[in-house]
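Slide 14.
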Amino acid sequence: MKNKLLLLVCFLITGTSLMAQSTYQWKTASAGGYSYKYVTNDPTKSRFYTLKNGLTVVLSPNPKEPIIEFRLAVRAGSNTDPRTATGLAHYLEHLLFKGTDKFGTLDFAKEKPLLDKIDALYEQYHETKDPVKRKEIYALIDKTSGDASSYSIANEYDKMMKAIGGQSTNAHTWYEETVYKEDFPSNATDQFLALQAERFRAPVFRIFHTELEAVYEEKNRGLDNDSWKVNEQTGALLFPTHNYGQQTTIGTVEHLKNPSLLEIRKYYNKYYVPNNMVIALAGDLNPDEMIKKIDQSFAYMKAKPLELYNPAPEKPLTQVQKIDVYGPSAESVRMSYRGYAQNTTQSLLLDLISSILYNGKAGLLDINLNKQQKVLGASAGYQQMKDYGIFTLAAQPKQGQSLDDAQKLLLDQVNILKKGDFDESLIKATVANSKLSLLQAFDKNPFRVESVTNEFILNRGENWDKSLNALDAMAKVTKKQVIDFANGFFTDNYVVAYKHKGEDKNIGKVEKPAITPVKTNASETSEFAKKLLAMQVKPIAPKFLDYKKDLNYGKVEIADVITVQNKENSIFNLSYRFDMGAWNYRLQPYAAQYLSFLSTDKYTAEEISKAFYNIACSYSFNVSNEVTTINISGLQENFDKAVSLVEHIFANCKPNEQALNELKSRILKSRENNKLNKASILNGLTTYAQYGASNPFNYTLSNEEVKNITSDQLLYILHNINNYRHAITYYGPQTLAAFTANIGKLHKLPKEFTPEAPGKKFTYATENGNQVYFANYDMVQSEIRWVRNGGPYNQTWAPKVTLFNSYFGGGMGSVVFQTIRESKALAYSTFAVFSSPDKKEKNYTLVAYVGSQADKMNDAVNAMNELLNDLPRTDKAFDASKYNALNSIATSRVTNEDIIGAYFSDKKLGFDHDSRIDEYSGLKPLHFDDVKTFHENNVANKAFNYCIVASEKNIKMDDLAKFGTVTKLTLEQIFGY
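Slide 15: predicted structure.
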């Protein structure tokens, strides 16, 4: 589901009384020989260009750091998949990383006949029904693919992006869009545009059958995901004719098994045309120079007549439809209503209503259900697509509560909305909070490009003015309009999905075909890549922090104060930072949870939540293992109100025995649910492997101890928290002097701090031979992690660790990814990193991972073990990794409140200066032999702990015994309760 904030900025209001265009208006201008449109008072300063070939380009200058964020989006996704070939758009997305006739190949003239043969074989395979003949054809596909791989260069695109300094290569496909995502240093603009222009000029669909297997893995991961199953079945009922419900993005199992490369090529030729595409860039760019370069790079594209998906309207839903979904995860209920098109007043009203019902603080669900602990958790949201939206209400039942009970509670809140039993100030507060969030979000380049890209997908960018005006329009909505609309919208017209805990007897999987590993030719380079990487680039000089100059240090009585002045806007972030946490006081996390349900002598818990929401401020009490923070943020004009209220809450909160009993019941229920979560189980296994039976993951209260928690214990912590040593940090508009004078009046401090209890110490386990820690879980996939303690922290290791991770297993261009996914098709997701600790007293940890089909597990383990024991050498890949690591530091700019965070992070590691200074200088002299030696000393031929979560029905325990001594852990051993 897309980010709610992003959707908010993309709501379009057309032809209604809600419109108010005085602030945001379209204007036209010309510069550098190009005409463009812009919207007055646009915080992103975006320019909208339309080139001669119809290509839309949106440029948003933001020179705070020498990085540019890029999106190329096509208005084509699963909606435009042929009915007989679902999943096609998603296939194509994967193939757009494989290169062209100029890169990704050693000799295209020799490669092409083999690729043509593969195309023809897939057509035969597509048309053949006889399983024996299909197997024979696939064997030919496999053999021919192996022959063709003699001429291909796997992942050359990713290698080039890495070599020019890219950090975030990715893409996604959705209902009506395929979006390609990158960032790059601003000095590599010419290289980047040359690569992107070539990438989309004439893509070649090489190395297809191993990539197809990666998509199979992605499908199987979805089959293991209960939420994915709920989404798919709900969509089918909400949209009985529209492709939103009739075609999934990843496609059906049957269509995945029968791909047609010719159909994929037709799809590319039909939809990947400039009049159906947008390029959006935000960052350190000069729009006049950038538009000229983009025009020159993409001028080869030719516009074509285009016909997009144009469905018949859905008939109204007139009854409640029920779905029962089974799986191993926790039970839940979700109600889904069909919403409206993206440019309607109704959609704006639904987004507003979603916040009236649920905003995390003062919505009806927040106050009446979550604050009253009537369910384990409840939420609401609105997801906007082009033709329709989906409004959802969801809840997890608490202990002893049925799904029907939880659903009734959700409907009760809808009825309260329909009756108008809510304060009209919620509308004003929603607008204020959303404006604050947008003020923060628009400072980030990724948000900028995502916003304008989404705008193009929904309506070709023509209503950006109305999108920016959406919040002002929302502010004009009256309570009566909300009530009238709610009464017409919320009827017996929804789909309710009951997610039960139990075996899914209908689950299947995409079977593993026989695949011979293809050649990756990792050490080879195409002529295109050589020329691209030989282009002259002006280096970017790094900018490091000087903690003596970039931070302001002061005192408020006995507390240290550290500030950074915000000279850009009126936002503040205040924190009280305590060097203690759950390892010092095991009850402290429970006190933090209890706090949100407590009243004071002046205000009820509900009034407190509403008060913060009304002034667009937030506060939180966060307890980690070793650090606790009280955070307060919002607009500086409300600083005194927010801080005073927080101080009042901690000093005057009162016991609430009913709330405590409900909280304890919910904690116990959450613990049951945690044991049903495979990710939590794997994390628990990992920590068990690191430390043994006594470890940070299971260092918690027993269920009996939870039941015995008292209000007095928790209130003692809350009332006395400020008596413990803490630093006060502030990022905001005030100077140090003004801030210390102000906070000194608001924040009560003791004459001396109370010493905190010593923190719990954990001993790292010693590896004595390979161990296998196994947990049984009903799933199609198997999840495998390799874990090894890497020894005590060493300040001088940072450059080697960074370079090792970049080269070996930290991205799509790494040795691990290329071998296990690209060559051998053994996993959709895989990585291996030497993980650095966050504190100098802790150890490094080597963590490797493969998520694969259970029937591939043995092959996947063997493949990873080969790499762990023998580091392949590819000099060009190493050079790219080194450049990327250096460039990442050179182009990073730590600013605003992040300076404070960097200071504390470095301090924990024993640095009194910016640690990146040492890392940068240490990277420069490193050669492959240095990384090879590091690998030999710390990784190769070492004992490992294998942490495996899989179904006993799909794997053999005898196979696990081949990896090491097997210990099957119970959930109680893993979780500690």
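Speaker note: DSSP finds 39 helices and 25 strands in the chain.
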